[in-house]
């Protein structure tokens, strides 16, 4: 199989609101900087894959507005209307096919321009479910409760995820929400949907993220330190929440198994050096890290309490601060890949972990992790 | 390209203005089931599923999620791709690349739209820039009317030329059991139909349909087991234009299609497309577009396409039939529309065209049109 590497990245500062920039401005900013970072010109770029949501942009055909900003004028461009990791997946496949040597992957979202709970309600089928008033907070509260009940996870353990994230985010210059908070403060924040408190939900965020991919020969010409995508897989689960066991990350287990097999990883808990996980809610860092095989089922809270997942622990999870520190929907998963790249390329600055050679990045789309994408990255091809 | 990939099955609904008997997921399921039946496969043989529509038209956010159980995405990779009118070809091209990559051996893609459950024009208006262009280019009519006037002046095309296309495609559509509009009309009927926006009349315009269309792509090894008549993908190209309609120098003289088709011919080893192509399925959202988009396919000297059309080259009996399915002028379930073009190209190569079969099709070209004068091109061949 043809090898694909990340050779350039860029992300905006993530903020609660970016009133000064239209979303095309954000896309131009990160596309320009990612191409510069890779050392290729827009004319050398062969294709772009974007990820955005018509609902958040308020634009049907949301890639319409970013074709020049994403360097895809008179070029092949396509839009994946899912988390940015799926756009990465498609770009990797196009390069692996042998038809292209490089690709720009770019994702944007200005959540501040939409009403997240109203938009999320439109995920639910208009016949049976939408009128129940379901939104992101309430369905993820179902999942949080199911998971906590089955594995005896406490509210304090979920809150500790937020404490770690915000602490790590202090060292990440692009993070939106950073600071020293206590478990008590997290649990004292307003209850959004039992058991999820305001500080346990990812905030409304504006921003964009981009990366440049290249096949092996070009990658090695462009940089001495390419970061290879050694495994990638995605699976989708059933739609109706009642048909799923919400306490089990079913499609994530499948995606992780396939991606690890592709990357030749037999024991992720030993072979993965750092993980960037899309936790839109505090409990998700625990549940998804179990789904990714970083610890046994039900063992994530203990791993967190033992500080194994802290920046200096043996299995750092979300040294960037994760989605809880502020990344918009759709962009969040691609940011995880970029952060994993920064760790492996030793470019993470203050939130750099030590001796990272293999990383896993994770993105998810849909209610309660209906679809997951797992990306394994390595300094060795 | 390292891996050969073919379309091994197609499936579509009978397209209509309204399908009150099914909801969205049932509509999608119908096309997926028909496609699997065509391949004599169960969903267990499919490795990846791609799906798309235009979300604002029905107001379903992340519509791939609701469709996961019926599209077959549940339990495998599910990917949603939407690019406006070209969604169907974008999906087909993505399914092709997923198999060509070696990551999957088979992929099913499905495009759909159920326009009666929303307001298409209200949804479409939001495509253009809210500050600079929305007032001028709201919806399809305004943009196409401006484009047609420009084209007519530049290339000496008349309303009669456009009307003849409207008649040809409607007559072709009468032989396609899946077509939405089956109209026995004449050039006079078209010219006497209601003016929508000069020079576009009611019968020049595509309908608003609901329906779904699905395709299965397979690698060489699987394709040969599934069917003895695979439609091999010889080329798949995409070109996108500027985000501002006003920045496109001449709308209907489709520079994206000129560029995409030139690249596709090169990849497919086609030197003289007029001689080497056996059939074209063209995305013509309006009668005028068939004239101008064909002109962009390098079939003749620039601006001379009308001469070929007048000679009957593009009729069912001509040297290079265009839109034997009846085209978009008969059937327009937006998220599926471009995929219907690819499906028809595959049907023609596989000899499944029934009453509308063009004899001896070995090479077929399908196009997708969307966004701001964007183009997709796929070339299929009976052997590679």
What keyword list fits this structure?
heterodimer, A: 381 residues, alpha/beta, two-stranded antiparallel sheet, 13 helices, 18% strand, B: 384 residues, nine-stranded mixed β-sheet, globular
Quaternary state reads heterodimer
Q: Rg of chain B to the nearest angstrom?
A: 19 Å
As residue ranges, the low-confidence spans of chain A are none
- Termini separation of chain A: 11 Å
Total beta-strand segments of chain A: 11
Number of helices of chain B: 16
How would you state the average pLDDT of chain A, rounded?
Answer: 97
Number of strands of chain B: 11
Which word captures the global form of chain A? globular
Question: How does the SSE layout of this entry go?
Answer:
The complex is a heterodimer of chains A (381) and B (384).
Chain A lengths: L3 E8 L11 H16 L9 E4 L2 H4 L19 E4 L3 H13 L5 E9 L5 H6 L14 H16 L3 H15 L13 H6 L2 E3 L2 E2 L8 E10 H7 L4 E10 L13 H14 L4 H4 L2 E3 L5 H10 L8 H6 L26 H13 L13 E8 L5 E8 L3
Parallel strand pairs in A: 2-3, 2-4, 9-10
Antiparallel strand pairs in A: 1-7, 1-8, 4-7, 5-6, 8-11, 10-11
Helix pairs in contact in A: 6-11
Chain B lengths: L4 E8 L11 H16 L8 E5 L2 H4 L4 H4 L1 H4 L5 E4 L6 H14 L5 E9 L5 H6 L13 H17 L3 H15 L13 H6 L2 E3 L2 E2 L8 E10 H7 L4 E9 L15 H14 L4 H4 L2 E3 L5 H9 L9 H6 L16 H4 L3 H16 L13 E8 L3 E8 L3
Parallel strand pairs in B: 2-3, 2-4, 9-10
Antiparallel strand pairs in B: 1-7, 1-8, 4-7, 5-6, 8-11, 10-11
Helix pairs in contact in B: 5-16, 8-13
């Amino acid at each position: 199989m043809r090898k694909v590497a990340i050779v350039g990245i860029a992300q905006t500062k993530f903020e609660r609101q970016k009133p000064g920039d239209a979303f095309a401005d954000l896309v131009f900013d990160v596309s320009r900087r990612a191409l510069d970072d890779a050392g290729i010109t827009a004319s050398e770029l062969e294709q772009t894959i974007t990820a955005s949501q018509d609902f958040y942009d308020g634009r049907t055909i949301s890639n319409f507005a970013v074709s020049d900003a994403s360097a895809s004028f008179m070029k092949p461009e396509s839009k994946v209307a899912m988390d940015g990791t799926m756009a990465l997946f498609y770009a990797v496949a196009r390069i692996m096919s042998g038809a292209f040597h490089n690709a720009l992957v770019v994702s944007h979202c200005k959540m501040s321009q939409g009403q997240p709970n109203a938009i999320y309600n439109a995920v639910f089928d208009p016949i049976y479910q939408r009128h129940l008033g379901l939104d992101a907070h309430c369905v993820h509260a179902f999942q949080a409760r199911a998971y906590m009940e089955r594995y005896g996870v406490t509210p304090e353990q979920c809150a500790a995820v937020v404490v770690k994230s915000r602490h790590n985010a202090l060292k990440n210059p692009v993070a939106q929400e950073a600071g020293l908070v206590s478990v008590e403060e997290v649990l004292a924040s307003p209850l959004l949907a039992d058991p999820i408190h305001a500080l346990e939900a990812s905030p409304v965020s504006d921003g964009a993220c981009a990366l440049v991919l290249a096949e092996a020969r070009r990658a090695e010409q462009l940089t001495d330190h390419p970061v290879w995508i050694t495994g990638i897989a995605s699976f989708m689960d059933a739609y109706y929440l009642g048909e799923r066991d919400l306490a089990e990350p079913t499609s994530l287990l499948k995606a992780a198994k396939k991606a690890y097999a592709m990357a030749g990883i037999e024991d992720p808990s030993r072979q993965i050096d750092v993980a960037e996980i899309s936790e839109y809610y505090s409990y998700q860092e625990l549940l998804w890290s179990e789904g990714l095989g970083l610890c046994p089922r039900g063992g994530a809270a203990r791993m967190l309490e033992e500080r194994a997942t802290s920046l200096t622990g043996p299995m750092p999870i979300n040294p960037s601060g994760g989605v809880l520190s502020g990344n918009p929907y759709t962009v969040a998963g691609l940011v995880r890949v970029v952060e994993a790249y920064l760790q492996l390329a030793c470019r993470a600055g203050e939130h750099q972990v030590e001796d990272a050679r293999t990383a896993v990045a994770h993105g998810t789309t849909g209610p309660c992790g209906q679809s997951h994408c797992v990306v394994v990255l390595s300094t060795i091809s | 390209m390292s891996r050969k990939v073919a379309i091994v099955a197609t499936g579509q609904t009978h397209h209509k203005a309204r399908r009150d008997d099914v909801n969205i997921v049932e509509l999608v399921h119908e096309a997926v089931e028909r496609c699997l039946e065509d391949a004599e496969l169960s969903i267990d043989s499919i490795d990846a599923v791609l799906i798309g529509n235009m979300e604002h038209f029905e107001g379903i956010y992340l519509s791939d999620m609701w469709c996961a159980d019926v599209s077959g995405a549940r339990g495998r990779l599910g990917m949603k791709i939407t690019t406006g009118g070209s969604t169907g070809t974008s999906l087909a091209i993505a399914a092709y690349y997923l198999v060509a990559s070696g990551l999957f051996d088979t992929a099913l893609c499905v495009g759909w739209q159920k326009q009666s459950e929303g307001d298409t024009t209200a949804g479409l208006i939001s495509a253009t820039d809210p500050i600079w262009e929305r007032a001028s280019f709201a919806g399809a009519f305004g943009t196409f009317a401006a484009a047609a006037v420009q084209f007519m002046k530049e290339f000496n095309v008349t309303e009669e030329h456009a009307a003849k296309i409207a008649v040809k495609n409607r007559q072709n559509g009468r032989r396609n059991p899946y077509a939405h509009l089956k109209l026995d009309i004449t050039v006079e009927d078209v010219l006497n139909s209601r003016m929508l926006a000069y020079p576009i009349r009611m019968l020049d315009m595509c309908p608003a349909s609901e329906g779904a269309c699905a395709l299965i792509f397979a690698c060489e090894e699987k394709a040969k087991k599934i069917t003895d008549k695979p439609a091999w993908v010889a080329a798949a190209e995409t070109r996108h234009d500027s985000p501002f309609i006003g920045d496109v120098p001449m709308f209907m003289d489709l520079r994206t299609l000129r560029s995409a088709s030139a690249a596709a011919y090169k990849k497919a080893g086609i030197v003289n497309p007029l001689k080497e192509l056996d059939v074209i399925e063209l995305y013509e959202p309006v009668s005028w577009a068939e004239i101008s988009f064909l002109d962009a396919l390098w079939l003749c000297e620039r601006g001379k396409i009308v001469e070929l059309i007048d000679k009957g080259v593009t009729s069912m009996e001509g040297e290079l039939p265009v839109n034997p399915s009846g085209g978009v002028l008969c059937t327009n379930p937006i998220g599926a529309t471009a995929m219907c073009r690819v499906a028809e190209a595959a049907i023609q190569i596989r000899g499944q065209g029934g009453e509308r079969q063009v004899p001896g099709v070995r090479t077929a070209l399908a196009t997708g049109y969307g966004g701001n004068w964007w183009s997709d091109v796929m070339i299929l061949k009976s052997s590679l």
